[in-house]
């Protein structure tokens, strides 16, 4: 009777559409999104968004129509394709925009310009005038209006943003300040500034480690197919040893750092000490929880081995399944690009 109560598993023969109401709702959403997209493109100034515009209403890279009562409007800026901000780091957080005079220029300054004479030399050699239109390059160092109509110097090294023709500073420091200002709940913003600077400095290492972890995951998946039983136990032991070792190293580093802080009392040293303490406590808590979980669920290891074995078989027979996360990620990127583009078009409708 026990055997007969067990239902023999068979694949589903009659395939039918499930969650029909949700499918209809999703179709309505897509149609609605399409309408919004069409409306934003029809009413939004796509040229203003892509080509950019200056503070006088001229679209960069084309001939403009004169607007009555607006100085410097209606200029022919066919050869001036890039938007340049005189003070790019002066950010107005309330209105979420750069509080600076914007001009159309023919080239972004690819090296730092320290003085008005450097700005004048850049205009003469590259033909790119970084001061407002009413000043000629010869007047940059002589006209008293240059203080207001020329960029705030030193002018940072900048490069055009791909597709959007805006000169953006290459140095990340002013954007780090921008991120700080947004996150107002951080009491000591200098800590965040150092954190962002640290991440930017180590970005190659971070990306390299992400790539390495991906490669190791792929290798592990192939290995699991052949030695799943042994591997699960090896991994379990390695995780336990790794957690213990990592926790021990963190506490040792904390003790060592604490002993040396008394000698050199700097803010960075205090930050490091505090960070090490947080990491060490977190690692200890994680290790204890991991031990308890492994103790309670030790009998489920056999099931885990079986699951890994089946998963390994699936990946061997369907190798393209490995790329599934990449496709999902790619589609999501496209979808978010679509959303952001529509949002930007709506922003330019005025």
From TrEMBL:
Record field: transmembrane: 21-47, 205-224, 231-254, 274-294, 301-320, 326-346
Family: Belongs to the CTL (choline transporter-like) family.
Keywords assigned: Membrane, Transmembrane, Transmembrane helix
One Pfam family matching this protein: Choline_transpo
InterPro entries (alphabetical): Choline_transptr-like
Purpose: Choline transporter.
This protein's name: Choline transporter-like protein
Bilayer topology term: Multi-pass membrane protein
Localisation per UniProt entry: Cell membrane; Membrane
Top-level lineage group: Eukaryota
Gene that this sequence comes from: Slc44a1
Annotated organism of origin: Indicator maculatus (spotted honeyguide)
Lineage of producing organism: Eukaryota, Metazoa, Chordata, Craniata, Vertebrata
Record-level Gene Ontology MF annotations: choline transmembrane transporter activity
